[in-house]
What does this fold into?
Amino acid sequence: MVKQSRSRAGKPRYKCRDRECRRSTFIQAYSDRGYLPQVKQQIADLALNGSGIRDTARVLRISPTTVIEALKKIVT
It folds into this structure.
């Protein structure tokens, strides 16, 4: 892992040198909960159990738009 640059919010952005990494750059501490992999997994789990978009957003305390975008990426 190597420091690469800074995000718009001023947080350091890192680059992974391992070729097997899924992402080339990442931020260690996201300020938005919707970007966390754990939250994306919870979105998928709640969708499989039949929860609606608004219910999922309310439970996870994220935007319904974030839920929709995450579900679109999972389906495609």
Notes: Strands lie at 2-6, 12-15, 25-27.
